[in-house]
């Protein structure tokens, strides 16, 4: 349990809080910007880690000189306390208390009508306000497509910020912030956020199928420097969009496994040379190649770490909160995975 929380703190960019003496460094800046709900989520993980650490490392027998004050242990303890996680979090809580309360306006879900998807206020804070107002969301059984809630993202004074608007340096901070917010949201909803260990990538001599996304993009960028989505995936989808959208069961009906295997070998040999002829490929075989490409990735497209979380999000009863959780999960994905998923 302690190891899991330690991994979470590292993923959240708070690794300095681990160990005997927590170093504030840049963390105090990050922690001071957290909302009350987010700070509580981080504190909960830190407490669990600390309890596990104490159980693992039992305190040694006290020295007699400490008991009778021969050594000035109080000053040493005071120095340690100043840099401890408890003292750090006392400062964070104090700064949060001094802030002015914000007005969180929330609306009850209304199927069939347009509803605002508010991105200006932390999702976890919105959920906390709904729970305080005795809001209880129930799963809806939709009889027809017209009853789905329609969401709109309002353009604020500064517009809507999208992934492509941020610099590479800013994007490095987004996954850690999204993880803290997602954890806080799940805590409020009573929803367990499970995380697996990273998958061990298998080495392969192939260049297209069974190759890690990063490696595949490196090969693609030798041909087209600004490539962000694997060229093979782009080619497969383009082929399906041009000639396969009218084919019944295009992703359900399987193509010929013999032809698909032969096509895979031809693609490995001829794709980068430009000699592969897509117009001669049967559409169901193209869909088979698409499924094979995704299936043979060494690590899942949604990553091994958070694949269980993606699968479990559907259990969140409220549609807006389900979309909020998915929004945050996608922000946590590595850039190649996020671009490929999009």
Automatic annotation (TrEMBL):
Rho-GAP domain ranges (all copies): 211-342
Domain of life the protein comes from: Eukaryota
Protein name, UniProt field: RHG40 protein
PROSITE patterns per UniProt: RHOGAP
Coiled coil (UniProt feature): none
Listed GO biological process terms: regulation of actin filament polymerization; regulation of small GTPase mediated signal transduction; signal transduction
Pfam families given in the database record: RhoGAP
A cellular component term, taken from the record's GO annotations: cytoplasm
GO molecular function term, any single one: GTPase activator activity
Keyword set, alphabetical order: GTPase activation
InterPro entries recorded: Rho_GTPase_activation_prot, RhoGAP_dom
């Amino acid at each position: 349990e302690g190891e899991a929380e330690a991994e979470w703190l590292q993923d959240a960019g708070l690794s300095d809080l681990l160990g005997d003496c927590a170093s504030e460094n840049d963390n105090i800046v990050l922690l001071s910007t957290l909302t009350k709900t987010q700070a509580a989520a981080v504190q909960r993980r830190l407490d669990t880690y600390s309890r596990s650490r104490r159980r693992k490392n039992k305190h040694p027998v006290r020295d007699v000189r400490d008991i009778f004050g021969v050594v000035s242990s109080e000053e040493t303890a005071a120095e340690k306390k100043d840099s401890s996680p408890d003292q750090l979090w006392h400062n964070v809580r104090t700064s949060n208390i001094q802030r002015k309360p914000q007005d969180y306006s929330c609306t009850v879900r209304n199927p069939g009508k347009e509803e605002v998807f508010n991105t200006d206020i932390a999702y976890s804070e919105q959920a906390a306000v709904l729970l305080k107002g005795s809001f209880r969301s129930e799963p809806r059984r939709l009889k027809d497509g017209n009853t789905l809630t329609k969401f709109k993202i309002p353009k604020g004074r500064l517009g809507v910020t999208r992934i492509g608007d941020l610099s590479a340096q800013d994007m490095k901070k987004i996954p850690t912030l999204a993880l803290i917010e997602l954890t806080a949201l799940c805590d409020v909803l009573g929803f367990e956020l499970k995380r697996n260990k990273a998958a061990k990538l298998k080495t392969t001599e192939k260049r297209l199928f069974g190759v890690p996304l990063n490696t595949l993009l490196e090969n693609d960028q030798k041909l087209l420097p600004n490539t962000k989505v694997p060229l093979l995936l782009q080619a497969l989808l383009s082929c399906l969009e041009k000639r396969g959208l009218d084919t019944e069961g295009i992703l359900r009906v399987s193509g010929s496994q013999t032809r698909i295997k032969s096509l895979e070998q031809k693609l490995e040999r001829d794709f980068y040379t430009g000699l592969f002829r897509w117009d001669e490929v049967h559409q169901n075989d193209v869909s088979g190649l698409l499924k094979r490409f995704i299936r043979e990735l060494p690590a899942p497209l949604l990553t091994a770490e958070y694949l269980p979380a993606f699968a479990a999000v559907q259990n969140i009863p409220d549609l807006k909160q389900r979309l909020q959780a998915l929004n945050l999960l996608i922000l946590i994905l590595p850039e190649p995975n996020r671009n490929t998923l999009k």
